[in-house]
Amino acid sequence: MSAIANAATSRRSFLLGAAGVLATGRLPKASAQSSKTAREFTLTAAKGRTPLVRAQPETDVWCYDGIVPGPLIRARQGETIRIIVENRLGEDTTVHWHGIRLPLAMDGVPSISQPPIAPGQRFTYEFTPPDAGTFWYHPHADSLQQLGRGLAGAFIVEEPEPVAVDREVVWMLTDWRLTTEAQIASGFGNGMDAAMSGRVGNTVTLNGIVSDEEPVGAGERIRLRLINSSLARIMALRFQGHRPLIVAIDGQPCDPHEPDGGRVLLGPAMRIDVVLDMHGEPGRRYKVIDDFYDGLAYWLTELAYDDKPPLRAHILDPPLTLPRNPVPDPDLTTAQMHELRLQGGMMGGGGMAGMGGMSNAVWAINGRSMTGDGHAEMTPLLALTLGRSYVLTLRNDTAWWHPIHLHGHSFRVLSRNGRAVPSRQWADTVLVPPKQAVEVAFVADNPGDWMLHCHVTDHQVSGMMAVLRIA
Ligand code: C2O
Ligand code: CU
Predict the structure, then answer these.
(1) Final residue of a structural domain among 158, 185, 214
(2) Atom of ligand 1 lying closest to residue 453 CA
(3) Which residues contact 102 (CB under 8 A, 6 or more apart)?
(4) Residue whose CA lies nearest to ligand 1 atom number 3
(5) Who surrounds ion ligand 2 at CB < 5 A?
(6) Checking CA distances to 390, which of 207, 260, 420, 450 falls within 20 to 30 Å?
């Protein structure tokens, strides 16, 4: 397997050590210890330095276990895991296990789930992931800086039976706003970013480094797990000469389908698993292009074929649908409906949209703004009945895109602007385009006060956040 023999990897080999040599991509894995009751990991959040851009000075970052992204955590579906998080930062932190359906006390929201982890302190997370799929973890405290300075990692939950692909690759894609010396630019949370698209940067890394190429072999079938861990950048990936097939969204299997227009759309915090059949020519290179923002297209990397003859003569049949996770199906005949209007932000002309008399907050949901990362006394926007089915209409009254994330649940994406969404799509973070409406449905089966917020971090911390109480 040639996945490790590339320049990017050797540049980082001092960080990866032997752990980088894995059939599962080149993210170093967290080392696990088995105890009687749970598989155990440790994660230490601290300052570090890492080479994000080749031929540039190393970048000062905040990171887990000294690396960007943090160690890849792999668990098996239904297996209890324990993660001891140690905080060696100069400020409070927590860890949120994004997309994993777990008890509120393990969800990492400060004050609502747990007291924040103070500098020098530890906190032990323990939970049993019910769903297989692609997830990730990140802090839920001082989120703009902590995520924006590098604290994030991939979290993979394996299916009980291996999926029929030749290999699996994880691409954690992260946008950074860097200075010319490759240092993280200051100015987190400035009013311009907050009221507009959020802190979109100028450098996108693939597994922690700007990538020239990713090695592939002709004929192989790859399961590529894409994770957008950016603060604000939305991505639309095109794979030149290839036809990715989407098999899972936010960890939840869907009917395999090609993305609209051949572009894989990934808002912040979203994950998409694609199956890629490598039917390019040996020795050739194919660009992977992100052209989400008009006039700002760039190439993320190139798929670089080795010279070996194709692994197989014929393309495989379409992949089998992944096994479904035990997510309850909402009952749409009895579901209660609620509308959540996403409001605020700068309009083209400089005014605030639909916000009649707001003060420091720039965003709101149904006229109410909650700011920050989670704190005590957050009054629920909605009170939901445990076990009941709900349909939420996310109506975007603003001029900006919002990836809306609900904690503790996965929801079925029913429709966009009244048109049914095909392919049985589930998500925990759904991208709502400007002036559009998306309907999602879920069973409120997890008791607690759950966050619902935009995952453009600037929008979240400046008001586009709410709490749904399920009891
Ligand atoms: Cu990725 Cu409130 O979370
Ligand atoms: Cu937003």
Answers:
(1) 158
(2) 2
(3) 127, 128, 129, 408
(4) 98
(5) 402, 454, 456, 459
(6) 260
Residues 252 and 277 in one domain: yes
Query: Backbone phi, then psi, for 7, in 5-degree steps?
Result: -60, -40
Paired tokens of 261 = 């227009």
Low-confidence ranges of the chain (pLDDT < 70): 1-26, 34-36, 347-361
Same domain, residue pair 213 and 300: yes
**69: preceding bond cis by omega (within 30 degrees):** yes
Domain final position from 107, 130, 158: 158
Which pLDDT score, from 0 to 100, does residue 28 have?
78
Distance 200 CA to ligand 2 centre (A): 12
Q: What is the sign, positive or negative, of the torsion defined by CA atoms of 249, 251, 422, 395? A: negative
Please name which of 38, 60, 39, 42 lies closest in space to residue 51, comparing C-alpha atoms: 60
Domain count, the chain: 3
What's the 242 CA to ligand 2 centre distance in angstroms?
A: 31
Instruction: Give percent above pLDDT 70 in the chain.
Output: 90
Task: List the end-to-end C-alpha distance of the chain, in Å, as a whole number.
Answer: 50
Helices and strands of the chain, counted as H and E runs: 4, 34
Residue whose CA is at the smallest distance from ligand 1 atom 1: 98
What is the structure's pLDDT at 254?
A: 97
Domain that holds residue 111: 23-158
If phi over 0 gives left and psi between -120 and 50 gives alpha, with beta otherwise, what is residue 300?
alpha
With a pLDDT cut of 90, the percent of the chain lying above it is 82
Atom of ligand 1 nearest to the CA of 373: 2
CA 397–ligand 1 middle distance (angstroms): 22
Q: What distance in angstroms lies between residue 282's CA and the mean position of ligand 1's atoms?
A: 41
Give the start-end residues of each E strand in 165-318: 167-176, 203-206, 214-216, 221-228, 235-239, 245-249, 252-257, 264-266, 271-277, 285-290, 298-305
Cα–Cα distances in angstroms (integers) from residue 124 to residues 83, 100, 106, 275, in the given order: 6, 16, 9, 35
Query: H-helix or E-strand containing 194?
Result: helix 191-195
